[in-house]
Amino acid sequence: MNLLASSLPQTSINAAKLGLLAASIAHEVNQPLSGIITNASTCLRMLALDPPNIHGALETARRTIRDGNRAAEVVTQLRALFANNDTLTEPVNLNDAARDVIALTWDELQRNHVVLQLELTDGLPPVSGLRGQLQQVILNLLRNGSEAMKDVEDRPRLLLIRTGLDEHGHVRLTVVDSGIGFDAQATAMLFEAFYTTKSSGMGIGLSICRSIVERFSGHLWAMPNDGPGATFSFSIPCFSRNAEELRRHHALQSV
Questions:
Q1: DSSP string for residues in 106-163
Q2: Mean pLDDT for all residues in the chain
Q3: Suppose 193 and one of 50, 114, 207, 238 were both cysteines; which one would form an S-S bond, judging by CB atoms 3.0 to 4.6 Å apart?
C-alpha cells in the first residue's frame, strides 16, 4: 500500500475500492451487453421476415445466450478479484486460452479489417492461474490493439499474438499492433486506474489486467514499437503441482 492509501481512513479505502469495482463492472460488461442488444434486434428482424428465417434466428439467439453468460462470468471474475481471497490456481494452457478469445472476437476483428497473425509456440507448459481471468487479460489486450488501429488507413491493421518461454522459464504472451502507439514517457501511467488515452475510455481495462496478472505472480508491461504501434506482454510462472498443493493447504488452515 502506498503512503497516501496508508494515511486514509479504512472507510475511505473501502469506498475507493467499491468505486473501482463498480467502474470495472461497467467497463467489462459493456461489450457483452452491446452484443446481447444487437443479437436480440437481429433475431426479431429475422423472425419478422415472410417467411421467417428460423435458422438465422436460432443462431442469433444462441449468440445472445453466449453474451449473457459472458456478462455474468465477468461479474463473477471481478468479484473474486476484488475479494482479495487466497487464490487457488489451476493449470492453464495460454495457447488454448488465446484461441478461445480469438474465436470470441473473430467477427469483431473482421469488421474492423484486422489482419491477425499467430505465432503460438507448441508444447508450452501450462501456467498457474485461473482460465477465465487470464482470458479476460488476453481479451482486453486484443481489443485494445484492435481499437488502436481503427483510424489507420495508410497501412495494414496487423495484430500479432505470440507465445513462448521467457528467460526466467515463465510463459509469455505478447500482443503487437500497428496502431497509433503511445508516448514512451506515458508507459508507467498506462496501467493506472482511470488513466486513458481514448476519448471514450474509462481507464479501467489495463488496471484490471495488471491486477489479475500480478495475482498469479506474473508481470504485465508495455512498450512502443520502433515503427507504428505498441507491444503489450505478460508472463506467468508455470504451474507446479507441489506449489498448488501447498497453497491449498494454507487456504484450508486459514478457514
A1: HHHHHHTTEEEEEEPPTTPPPEEE-HHHHHHHHHHHHHHHHHHTTT--SS-EEEEEEE
A2: 78
A3: 207
Helix (H) or strand (E) holding 37: helix 10-48
Grid cell in block for residue 28: 467489462
Tens digit of pLDDT for each residue in 179-224? Answer: 987 776 666 666 675 455 554 444 567 888 888 898 899 999 999 8
- In angstroms, the CA 3 to CA 193 distance is 17
Higher pLDDT among residues 116 and 209, named by residue: 116
What does the pLDDT read at residue 48?
Answer: 92
* pTM assigned to the model: 0.67
Per-residue CA distances from 59 to 39, 48, 51, 54, 100 (Å) = 9, 15, 17, 9, 19
CA dist 136 and 46 (Å) reads 32
Q: Which three cell numbers stand for residue 2?
A: 502506498
What pLDDT sits at residue 35? 78
Cβ neighbours around 90 below 10 Å, total: 12
CA angle 217, 4, 190 (to 5 degrees): 50
* Dihedral over Cα of 104, 67, 60, 45: its sign: negative
Sheet holding 157-165, edge to edge: 114-119, 157-165, 171-177, 230-236, 219-224
Residues in the chain: 255
